[in-house]
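tokens incoming
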């Protein structure tokens, strides 16, 4: 899916940014807000798109598309959100990404493996600062969802709405249970 303002197709500076976004949080939003200052269009890859309903990956690709597209509504950025399933060959992963995305010239990532794979494929790779990494972290947010601690302030309001809409906290708790349901 694509959203927001139109740009001149002849001179488009188009970038790529991928994450698992389990869930999309304020750190991701801040990074994308900064990228929006430097490019005309952003291709956002939903990594591990095949994964859902597990403790580490509770949300489906479709739910993550909703989280991202609703959170970026206010941003002055033309963006595409594209699910990218994992493959078993890291050496072929960039070609796999390219086969499913609009062309782009620069990849933004702080993930060492992602950065390395794009670098070796000849792409310009840019990094961003890490924002409040101890709290703006999917692992920390899922931990808080399980323990009942407050997590809503760590994500854009649209993400909290999607999690509520799909009963995401209940789902995470159930798929994280060990043993039988009594
Ligand atoms: P993520 O959601 O943890 O993070 C996405 C991006 O946001 C990363 O660059 C991360 O460094 C950055 N980020 C996270 N918290 C931040 C904060 N507080 N402030 C600023 N930046 C922050 O996702 P990820 O694990 O990096 O996603 C990579 C995806 O690519 C995964 O789904 C992975 O499976 C996939 N991948 C697959 C293959 C393959 O299939 N062979 C190979 C490489 C990568």
């Amino acid at each position: 899916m694509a959203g927001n303002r139109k740009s001149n197709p002849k001179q488009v500076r188009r970038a790529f940014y991928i994450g698992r976004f389990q869930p999309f949080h304020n750190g991701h939003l801040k990074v994308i807000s900064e990228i929006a200052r430097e490019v005309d269009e952003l291709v956002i890859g939903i990594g591990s798109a095949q994964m859902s309903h597990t403790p580490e990956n509770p949300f489906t690709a479709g739910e993550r598309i909703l989280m991202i597209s609703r959170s970026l509504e206010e941003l002055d950025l033309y963006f595409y959100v594209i699910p990218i399933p994992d493959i078993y060959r890291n050496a072929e992963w960039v070609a796999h990404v390219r086969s499913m995305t609009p062309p782009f010239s620069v990849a933004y990532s702080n993930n060492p493996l992602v950065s390395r794979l794009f670098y070796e494929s000849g792409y310009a790779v840019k990094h961003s600062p890490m924002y409040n990494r101890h709290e703006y972290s999917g692992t920390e947010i899922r931990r808080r969802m399980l323990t009942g601690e407050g997590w809503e302030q760590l994500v854009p309001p649209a993400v909290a709405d999607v999690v509520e809409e799909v009963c995401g906290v209940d789902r995470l708790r159930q798929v994280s249970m060990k043993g039988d349901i009594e």
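note: The pocket of nicotinamide-adenine-dinucleotide is lined by residues 18-21, 27-28, 31, 47-48, 86-87, 90, 93, 109-111, 113-114, 117, 128, 130-133, 136-138 (CB under 6 Å).
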